[in-house]
MFS general substrate transporter (Tothia fuscella), 601 residues
Amino acid sequence: MRRFVPGSANSQKYQRVEEEGLSETSSISSNPEDENEYSTFQSKLSPLGKNEHSENGGLLSGKALPLGVPGAEKRFFFQRGSTVYDEDAVATQSSVFDDPETLEEYRPSPEWENYHKFDPSFRWSWGEEHRIIRKIDRRIMVFAGVMFMALELDRSNLVQALADNFLGDLGLSTNDYNLGNTVFKLAFLCAELPSQLAAKWVGPDVWLPTQMVIWSVVGCAQFWLKGKTSFLVTRALLGGLQGGFIPQIILYLSYFYKHHELSLRLAFFWTASAMADMLGGFLAFGILQLRGIEGQAGWRWLFFIEGLITLVVGLLAYFLMPSSPTSTAGWLRGKNGWFTPHEEKIIVNRIIREDPSKSSMHNREPLTPRLLWQSMKDFDLWPIYILGLTFQTPMTTPANYLTLSLKGLGFDAFKTNLLVIPSKVFHVIAMLGLTYLAEVWGELTLTALIGQLWALPFIIFVNLVDITSIDKWWAWLVMTLLLCYPNAHPIQVGWNSRNSNTVRSRTISAALYNMAVQTSGIIAANIYREDDAPLYKRGNHVLLMLIVLNVFLYLGTKVYYVKRNAYRERIWGSLSEEDKLRYLSGTKDEGNKKLDFRFAH
């Protein structure tokens, strides 16, 4: 089965708007009189004819089917003023499915879970599409964010526990704490691929809730920690059980969203993580005051209560996660599901028209070892993995030690937890702004670089100035501004997904990229060492070198993808139209290895 992605060099062949004589004002309300104008434009976009599939409708009969104007999509709410946005205009974008010569080459397999809703003749309006996107946001995205918040609560509560004498109660040193973080990250890292493969086999709607329920039990069990051994064991169990959660969610969301929509939703997804950190700060402020209840430390109650919260969310996830856009009926979702048959057709066809590769595998189809190896050796994605390995490290290390640093500056435990919150709030705002900028600007690499340029002057400052010797409020301000940096993580996750270009590759690349990010966390957890305390001069020098390295890595990534696209363009441009069609119908190249595919950068 051949795959195609709009935006490639070949996509212009299928933009038939001008060739078919369709104007920019073509809309549902135009009331065409010609019998060839697709039955008064699909009867105001009602389901087509007597047959839901329509057997290609007017495509094979030679009829010209109305298509949306390329570039007419208004991606953001502030672009949809009444003078520039017509919600009745055709939203259906040009695709390989509009040309009989390529339709059969890219037709989804009948085994694809949404095949019964695939219809290349189906048309809909921008108003309908945007209303459905908002509905998907409410039904799918919001709960995905809640699940991520639960994950983050259980990942970050160790930092809050530090403010309640956690290390002293268990007789642990700073190095023991670093070791615990390393063990967690290493277990998380090792579980990424196996967990992702298991989710691809049984479905993320089954695997993700199961993960949450099991790790919530381990989270609650931290109430009974006794010392270094139990601390390290629970860190390893939590890391192993939580590994793979993030790439699974990303793959799951890709079933419902287009590429640019996914990038923006991932920004809100990590906003949920930051909100969990803020919520965790407030929860810790209250829960840690339970110290002394039943003769137990406040941090023990923190682990136990937040573990119970995750357990509840995990149980709900069994009933609130549909397996696909066409399988939303369920006990808590209603016997008719969340979407009407007409809405399901819009969801399925708008996704597959943008990226036909999303129909290449069933969502419960396991990956074979050959496909796994094929995905792992895709060197064109390695530049993004390398960025994932280092881009957060200079900021993660200070973030890990923020509570300890604030306590060292003289703030008490409760004020310390509250002073962490502003950096989380402004970090969220900066991350959202950066992600929107990347989509509006249409530039991924240089936009992602902004985060490094933001952090650079603050890293230089902590290398030149002993922050323990200045006023503690000025020291807090410097650290807060550093940690407010605009994080490019959502951009890079979406970037990785775009450049993967098959479900098989997207499944593995999401895990490999996240493994790189977790490795970054391991590195970050071991930069500040006990023999370098309290100023961490050696550690700060390392952070400065890493941030300079990151600047060159981003620039190198930009050059790499520009060169790769130019190389393919030269080859593709030298082919005749007949040779291009012959290549598309006969090539064994798949996904981003096809000559007509262009890498996003």
Summary: Residues 537-573 form the longest helix (37 residues). Residues 1-62 have pLDDT under 50 and may be disordered. The chain has 23 helices and no strands. The radius of gyration is 26 Å.
